[in-house]
Each structure stands twice: as structure tokens, then as C-alpha cells.
Amino acid sequence: MEPREISQAVIGRLPRYLRYLGDLKDEGIERISSQELSKLMKVTASQIRQDFNNFGGFGQQGYGYNVEHLYEEISNILGLDQKHQLIIIGAGNLGQALANYMNFERRGFIIKGLFDNNPALHGKTIRGISVQPMDQMEEFMKTNNIDIAVLTIPKTSAVEIAEKLVQYGIKAILNFAHVDLNVPAGIQVENVHLSDSLMKLSYNLSCYNKEQ
Amino acid sequence: MEPREISQAVIGRLPRYLRYLGDLKDEGIERISSQELSKLMKVTASQIRQDFNNFGGFGQQGYGYNVEHLYEEISNILGLDQKHQLIIIGAGNLGQALANYMNFERRGFIIKGLFDNNPALHGKTIRGISVQPMDQMEEFMKTNNIDIAVLTIPKTSAVEIAEKLVQYGIKAILNFAHVDLNVPAGIQVENVHLSDSLMKLSYNLSCYNKEQ
């Protein structure tokens, strides 16, 4: 398929489709209509058809979608047919939690290295991956063909480390640091700001309370 | 201020405004124009003014915004003038990482309890908070006035636990389990699906590569 401009909103919805299709596949279901999928996922059937039309529609609507085929197609669109090599910068609690998180590997995101400034952590291993000093990052990235870095370091050092990662050839950053990174065009960044999610809950809680 | 219908997209942007205003406050900056804020945050000044107009505009544009005042206003809108009592369900790596995450407390989100099914974890303490068996959750929620639960348990048990939490009177759930929760209207849910963020990166990486 030729690359074309797909909105990030549509892309953002693809992982959820993939999750539901994976569950259907595991349950042995072979075909599903957009109406059934709509009921299951609580989005309109027209939204589903519009989303899928961005990628050519994925087959005849009259017969419903072939679950396995659709799963494979969306998986390929998301680039999950290729493996990605990751490093995690920051081997504190969150970094260690992510290193232990098996779901990443199942999707082809292979954690190859862990880096931290804290000498007390050097040599510690998590799932066989040993924590290394930061100054070995450049060499490690080159020999291990690393394309994604996960940042779980404080905001004070995140901007500087991101600049180094770019210099060393990183292509994408999953950023947990509570700061916006300043990277050149072409470098992909996804932010996960955990406090922001709590604040949204807090807003909606206080609105809900006011209406009581 | 009377509650009115504000889009979740606007609400979702408020924590980022708050973060930048907090940094400006820390730097001792007293006033900022929407143009300066626009440059700093890399969003248009018109977007900023539109967002703020949802809440009455926050003061005279000619003189710029009073940083401290704006910080307080947004903080109050987000309900951060009230404290929230949290429990974390699942004291595995991620649950422990979140229990150790000090940023939550700074924003008024107080972690009161940790719960896990695994007897090996019972009695273990993280920042003074001890891990308790799941069957003590109901009693604990009542005596500690818990309004938010953070779910860091596998998807297989998340749906069932969420139902129990609702039954015990929870008002909001921050869900890290890789499944959609089915809760009644009025219960707030925010999902943090970490694999989804990696998949978005993967998509954008593969698109970028195709264009080379």
C-alpha cells in the first residue's frame, strides 16, 4: 500500500481495533460485521467503516470482515510485522516495571538495554538485561541497532538526554518525563504524562460532584 | 463558576498549560502574553485564547496574563484545590512504581493503600504504605474515603475488580489494564495503554521509513 496522509486520530484508534480483533481471534471467531464490532467496541459502525476506508476498507461489508485477515492488515499497518529494538533510559521503579512488561515483546518491541546514572544500579539485571552506565549508550545503540528509546528519567535531565539520543541516531522516543522534548522533525515522540491523566479524572470528578 | 459543557479535548490540554505556568512561576515570571506563551508551548495564540475563553478568558489580554493567578485558576478548574484519596490495585512492578511516584502527592493525589492477590506481597511496605489482601479493600475504601482507584492488574481480572470497585463506591478509575472497563455512567475512567503508545510510534516510524 502507498503511504498516504492518515490523521493521528485514526492511527490512535488502530491499537484498540487490534486488541478487540486479537480477542475475537483467540475466541475462534472468523467473521464479524461492522455492526457487531460497533456494538462490542461501543463506537458507531459508520466510524468503523470510515476508519477502515482510510486503508482501502478491508474487504466486503456484506459478508463482514475476516477477523484474522483484518488483524494481520492492521498489525502490518502499525508496522508490527517488523521488530523494534528498544532501550530504557532510567532504571528506577518505572524503568524496571517497563523492562518487566512482557506485552511489549509480544508486539515485537524488544528491550535490549537499560541505562542509568546511578552506580548502585549498574550490573543489576532485569529479565536478563543488565543496567549499564549512561556513557555506554552511544556504543550500545550502534551495535544493537536501537530505534526506540523509552525515557523514564526526571524532567531535569530528560531534555539533555533526548538531544544526545537524537545525536546518536534514535528514531523514536516514548517519553514518561514530565516535560516536552525538543527534537528535530522526523523524530517521533509519544508522551505519557501520568499526572495529566489523574488531573483529567480530577476535573471530571469535580464537575460531576457540582452537578449532584 | 457555573459548570458548563467543556470538551474533553480542552480539558486534556489544561494540565500542559498548568505545567508551563508552574515552570514560569518557579522562574519568577509574573506576566506572560498569549503570544509569548504560544511561542513557548508551540501552539497558536488563537488556540490559547480559545481554550481560555471556555473559562471566561482569565484577564486582560493587553497586559498579558498574570502567571500566578492563571496557575491558580487552572489548578482550581482541574479540581486540584481538593485532595483525592487513591488506592492502587496490583502491587507488581508498575503498582510499586506508581506508589513511589512523588508527583502525584504534589498535585493532591494521596496514595492511601495498595492491594494485591499475591500473599507474598502482603505486609510489604512502599513509602510506608503496606500491601493488603484484596478482601480488605471494601472496608478500607469506606474508612479512608477513597475516590480514585488505579488499576495495575492483568486484563483477565481487571473487569471483575472494576465492577467490585463500583459496587464499593469508587468515583474514578485510572486503568492501566489492557482492556476496556464497563462501568456505569458517572464513573470516570482514564485509560493508559502503554502498548498503544508504542504502536503509534511504530506506525509513524514505518511511514517515515517508507518516505526515505
Question: What would you say this structure looks like, in words?
Answer:
The structure is a homodimer of 212-residue chains. Chain A folds into 2 domains: 8-77, Winged helix-like DNA-binding domain superfamily/Winged helix DNA-binding domain (Arc Repressor Mutant, subunit A, Orthogonal Bundle), CATH 1.10.10; 84-196, Rossmann fold (3-Layer(aba) Sandwich), CATH 3.40.50. Chain A has helices at 8-26, 34-41, 45-53, 67-77, 93-99, 102-106, 137-143, 155-167, 194-211; strands at 31-32, 65-66, 84-89, 109-115, 125-126, 129-132, 148-151, 172-175, 188-191. With 212 residues, chain A is of the alpha/beta class. In chain A, a hairpin with a 2-residue loop joins strand 5 and strand 6. The mean pLDDT of chain A is 90. The first copy, chain A, contains 9 helices and 9 strands. In chain A, the strands form 2 sheets. The first copy, chain A, has a 7-stranded mixed sheet with strand order 5-6-4-3-7-8-9, sandwiched between helices. Helices cover 46% and strands 17% of the residues of chain A. At the A-B interface, helix 1, helix 5 and helix 9 of A face helix 1, helix 5 and helix 9 of B.
